[in-house]
Design goal:
Chain lengths: 693, 206
């Protein structure tokens, strides 16, 4: 029946959208993101961020998306589930939307409760209550600076008031509250929210306005607080009762702006952490201090402490010379700290490996003592250069494990330096620190690389220039060769063709003159001579042009050059060449002249002598180059062979060339016995074969 | 009419033959002798004492310029008529300086040549225009020292600075200095150009 009614109810809600509100105990089970439902109830309390709503089944906190209500009002609101917040399990996911005040009511009178009501949970969830009691201690939340905690004692029990400063414009000194009787108007929290769940049930307030002082604390907290029980070691928390305790001694060190070490007259170290806005006492001062006891297995601490100077002589103990193994040893890779030195004045040598912080509160030097790391906390000390070997004198303190869950282990020891005098530099570091050395090496490498690059570049430039020079040289040689060849050709033309043409011109002029004079025979003779000269010149020109195209002068083997020069002229003739002067010993014009002479002689032997065999020899005799052309042809009468006037210009050409070479030409022959032509020219081998002109 | 007595000196026999017959037909001229070298020209001239000595510049042995000088020293009344192919500016200049009063190219028209010979015979100085042009280029060439000519010559044969220095018993630096001087005298900017200029002006013979 009930189930059926539920189904009907849900169906009705789905169809009309005007659902009945869920009982809050049911609503609290819904955790699905985005779910929407309605609740109805009284507003129990209102804080900055959330309000608490209660019905018969329970209470629930909702986020103040909209907040039309006051405490006491009967309201109805739609709730939308926000995404869960992993970092904060106490995050209020229920967002109040579309709220509606059903009935305005004045707030109910706030119930007065005591610490035992809170700790035993005898208060409805999120109810506004007035907690009455005496403040025994105050301390800030070490995790979240927005919170402080006030411990209130009443009826033999203690409870915590969580104070959220976020809503207050001014922070007051909570230390003044200690020992005062107060009434705190706050909301009962069944469990602490956020990271403070270890606090258990508590009363939450926004700002100090919620605290009213019923009876002020005694004016002198020092007189009011009993002395600290310094029994050591202790296995009980008997002194950690939340009440203020008193200690007297000498300030031996101070650090981090808020902490000092008090050495009692019997030599026990107490780490004192000041209340906010308090200044540290100077080192060496004799002081009385009150604070709340915080004791760990190794270290006695007073927190939220106040101090004042007292009369008395400061104790002065000589430093203990220690080395690293005395302070620290390793066991399975974990440091084992010799707690005996906690609070003692020690002196140790080490190398400064780093300066970790440079701020108003001083420096933290990282020291390496015999391979073990130490921190030296220095206030008002000029930090030495990294790498310096120093002798540090200071108060040794045990560093507690950062992990608050495991206070049974210490993470190491630090040395608190009291001033410049406590740090003696024994040896300044050499200039070549690893870093600088690296930089220098880097620079060297860069330099080497740059030089290598430069050398490579120079090499390239040199190669390029060499190639250019080589090209230039080649071009120069080519141009010299070309010019030489051109000049040789010009000389050749001048020596033969140009002269021949001039002579031809003279002959024709002569012929014309002879004709004008009526000398028919003379005219005929001039014309015949001219014709033969013309033939000869044509042949010369032809040879000249062929020579231009021939590479005979480029031939390294002079015998081959001779063969090339002879061309087809000597095809059917047996030519024997025994020329013992190398081509390289002659310059181009000499070689050319010799080739022309040999060609003319061979040509004569074949054409006129009908020679079948021709021997060409050449040799170097003293300062002369002697060569000869010997044939087995018909031969002729040397004294009576046809000459210029008979139109045989070949031998004349040979003579001309020989004369030009400054040489001698002899011709021996007899009818039927072939002929032998010998040419000898001056020849200086070592001057590159330059024949004397 | 007195015929002009002419001695022909040319190493080229065909040219000589042609000249002899050409001049032989001129009624006012007479070929009194032929010479095929500079030495022969001098000795023939001394023997024959011609009115005009027609002389080629480039001849083996004693060249035309030197022969001119020798002949004119001995026979001041003889006119030397230089008949040359295109040519060697330096030698031409030397010949003119030695006192040659005629200079003509062989490839000029024959009537002009004969006319020039006649005018020289009358005492005029006839230097063909093309030759005059060549002569203007000559002085710079003459300023090259014998050593510089040697260096140029070796360079034209393709020898390097070191080789030239070795051949001429000089230091390479000395050779380079000479080259700088040669280039400035010839108005050349590079070695090759200097050689080209020297060859073109027939300062060098290959």
């Amino acid at each position: 029946m009930y189930a059926f009614a539920s189904i009907l109810m849900i169906a009705a809600a789905a169809s009309t959208g005007a659902a009945r509100p869920l009982p809050i105990s049911e609503a609290r089970k819904i955790s699905e993101t985005g779910a929407r439902y309605e609740i109805e109830g009284d507003v129990v309390s209102v804080s900055r961020y959330w309000s608490a709503i209660r019905d018969e089944s329970g209470a629930m906190r909702v986020r103040n998306w909209t907040k039309p209500w006051n405490v006491g009002d009967v309201v109805r609101t739609t709730i939308e589930m926000d995404e869960p917040h992993d970092d904060n399990p106490g995050y209020v996911r229920q967002i109040a939307r579309h709220a509606m005040v059903l009935e305005r009511r004045p707030p109910r009178p706030v119930r007065e409760v005591f610490a035992d009501d809170v700790s035993k949970g005898r208060i409805s969830p999120f109810a506004c209550v007035a907690l009455r009691g005496t403040v025994t201690s105050v301390f800030p939340d070490e995790i979240d600076g927005a919170w402080s905690f006030i411990v209130v004692e009443g009826k033999g029990e203690q409870t915590v008031v969580s104070l959220n400063w976020a809503n207050s414009s001014n922070r007051v000194d909570l230390a003044d509250l200690v020992d005062a009787e107060v009434v705190v108007n706050g909301i009962f929290n069944d469990q602490a929210s956020g990271g403070r769940q270890y606090m258990g049930r508590n009363i939450q307030i926004d700002g100090t306005n919620a605290i009213s002082i019923v009876r002020a604390a005694p004016s002198d907290p020092f007189e009011a607080s009993p002395f600290l029980n310094l029994a050591w070691p202790t296995d009980s928390n008997d002194t950690d009762d939340g009440h203020r305790r008193r200690a007297v001694g000498t300030v031996v060190a101070r650090w981090m702006g808020r902490t000092f070490m008090l050495k009692t007259d019997d030599g026990r170290p107490i780490t004192v952490k000041l209340a906010p806005e308090r200044f540290l006492p100077p080192v060496g001062a004799q002081v009385e201090t009150v604070g709340f006891v915080r004791r760990t297995p190794f270290v006695m601490k007073l927190s939220n402490a106040l101090w004042r100077r007292t009369a008395g002589r400061a104790t002065d103990e000589p430093p203990v010379e220690v080395d690293a193994p005395m302070l620290l040893s390793d066991k399975h890779g974990e440091p084992i700290v010799n707690i005996r030195f906690h609070g003692r004045l020690i002196r140790i040598k080490g190398i400064v490996t780093d300066v970790l912080a440079k701020g108003s509160t001083g420096q933290i030097l990282s020291l390496n003592c015999d391979g073990k790391p130490f921190l030296a906390v220095a206030e008002g000390v000029t930090p030495p250069a990294i790498g310096s070997i120093v002798e540090a004198t200071g108060i040794c303190i045990a560093n507690e494990n950062q992990d608050a869950d495991d206070l049974t282990r210490l993470s190491g020891l630090s040395i608190i330096l009291r001033g410049d005098a406590d740090l003696k530099t024994l040896k300044t570091p050499p200039w070549w620190t690893a870093g600088r050395l690296l930089v220098v090496i880097g620079i060297l490498f860069a330099l080497i690389a740059a030089i290598a690059l430069w050398v490579w570049w120079l090499n390239r430039v040199v190669e390029q220039r060499s190639r250019e020079l080589h090209r230039e040289q080649k071009a120069h040689e080519d141009s010299v060769m070309r010019i030489g060849e051109r000049t040789r050709l010009a000389v050749e033309l001048h020596d033969s063709l140009s002269q021949s043409l001039a002579a031809l011109s003279f002959q024709i002029s002569s012929a014309r003159t002879a004709k004008a004079e009526g000398l028919g025979a003379a005219e005929e003779k001039h014309l015949v001579t001219a014709e033969k000269m013309l033939d000869s010149s044509r042949a010369e020109l032809r040879h000249c042009l062929l020579d231009l195209r021939s590479d005979m002068l480029e031939e390294r083997d002079f015998s081959k050059a001779i063969l090339k020069a002879l061309r087809a002229d000597a095809a059917d003739t047996g030519i024997e060449i025994d020329f013992r002067v190398r081509r390289s010993q002659m310059n181009d014009s000499t070689a050319h002249a010799i080739l022309m002479i040999i060609r003319e002689l061979v040509s004569n032997a074949i054409r006129h002598g009908r020679a079948k065999k021709i021997q060409i020899t050449g040799e170097h005799r003293e300062n002369m180059l002697v060569f000869s052309v010997v044939d087995d042809g018909l031969g002729f009468d040397v004294d009576n062979y046809p000459g210029l006037h008979e139109g045989h210009f070949g031998l004349a050409g040979v003579r001309q060339r020989v004369i030009n070479l400054g040489g001698r030409f002899t011709l021996r022959s007899a009818k039927g016995e072939g002929s032998a032509a010998t040419v000898s020219i001056k020849f200086n081998d070592h001057e590159g074969g330059q024949a004397a002109p | 009419m007195k015929q002009t007595r002419i001695l022909i000196a040319d190493d080229h026999s065909l040219v000589r033959m042609g000249l002899v017959s050409l001049i032989g037909y001129q009624k006012d001229m007479e070929v009194v002798g032929e010479a095929e070298s500079g030495e022969l020209a001098v000795s023939q001239a001394l023997r024959l004492k011609p009115d005009i000595l027609i002389m080629d510049i480039m001849m083996p042995g004693l060249d035309g310029a030197s022969a001119t000088k020798q002949v004119l020293e001995a026979l001041p009344s003889t006119r030397v008529f230089i008949l040359t192919s295109f040519g060697s500016s330096a030698d031409l200049l030397k010949a003119v300086m030695a006192g040659a009063t005629g200079a003509f190219l062989k490839d000029s028209p024959n009537n002009q040549l004969l006319d020039a010979i006649r005018r020289v015979a009358r005492g005029e100085t006839i230097i063909q225009d093309v030759i005059k042009q060549q002569l203007t280029e000559a002085p710079s060439l003459l300023s090259l020292s014998q050593r510089q000519l040697e260096i140029l010559h070796s360079a034209s044969c393709g020898f390097s600075t070191e080789d030239i220095a070795h051949q001429l018993s000089m230091t390479p630096d000395g050779v380079k200095k000479h080259f700088a001087s040669i280039c400035s005298k010839l108005g050349a900017s590079t070695r090759s150009e200097a050689i080209a200029i020297a060859l073109r002006r027939q300062l060098l013979k290959i």
